Amino acid sequence: MKTTKHIFLLLLCCLALQASAQVRVHLGASTAYNSTFVLDEGLSKDPRYSAQMTYNWAPVGMAFGADFNRGFGLQLESILSNQGQIYEIIDVAKQKIGERRIDLQYINLPLMLNFLSNSSSRTSFNFMLGPQLSLLTKGQEIYEQYKNGTLQTPENGQIPVGATDNGNGTYSYPAGTTVLASTDAASAIKQFRDKELQLAAGLGLNIDIGSHLYLSTNIRGNYSFTDMRNEDLINSIRQNSANDVLKDLFGRRANMLVGAQIGLHYMFGGNRSSVRSLGPLGN
């Protein structure tokens, strides 16, 4: 019942806005395929790791927008987004002996300023920019070493708990799997930050495919201003405490995403190419 009421209220808002000749509103759904990155200065400087290209789906997104004239509008989106990064574990012989996987899922809520090319043709350019609130729904970071290995001790770093110091700048570490962080963890030190502030941007085309329907195609990206890790874990790494099992080098960790998004939208009152004059929209 609550969902039905919310949909009904949203439709009423759409009709109220559409009643004004100055505003046109639209609803849409989207999907995207992205390259996702966990940018970590500490891991990038660590000889034990090699960052790999990582790809993930943002399987579903919803959008509600309002165009105030032919050149400018606002769009609020809700996007379920899978993100993360794979770092290969490299031994002293430069051989892969495991993976460090960071798997995250967010509900991204960007509020986008939408700048449109002032045209009544079927195809128009768009540029979008705005803040994004990202709410973590689930996440896990796993260190999985497939076999016993000899690894290089990072400069200014320490050997991890359970390792054997070889005395020559290397250490031996046994095969095994360690959950470094998880949204299911009971300990606060093993949890992620539950929300992030990001900047989102997009560039692409809107293509009218009917009197009320249009297709949006965009290159989209976002970057986080806040560290994705829990503050307790950050302090543990800085202090090289016993809780920091792998003795990571400290560096700010940020989420970044770049990908291709496609969406289908319904424009109340008709598309740009089908509505030649609606007050200020016809200017």
From TrEMBL:
<dbReference type="InterPro" id="IPR025665">
    <property type="entry name" value="Beta-barrel_OMP_2"/>
</dbReference>
<protein>
    <submittedName>
        <fullName>Outer membrane beta-barrel protein</fullName>
    </submittedName>
</protein>
<dbReference type="Pfam" id="PF13568">
    <property type="entry name" value="OMP_b-brl_2"/>
</dbReference>
<feature type="signal peptide">
    <location>
        <begin position="1"/>
        <end position="21"/>
    </location>
</feature>
<keyword id="KW-0732">Signal</keyword>
<feature type="domain" description="Outer membrane protein beta-barrel">
    <location>
        <begin position="24"/>
        <end position="228"/>
    </location>
</feature>
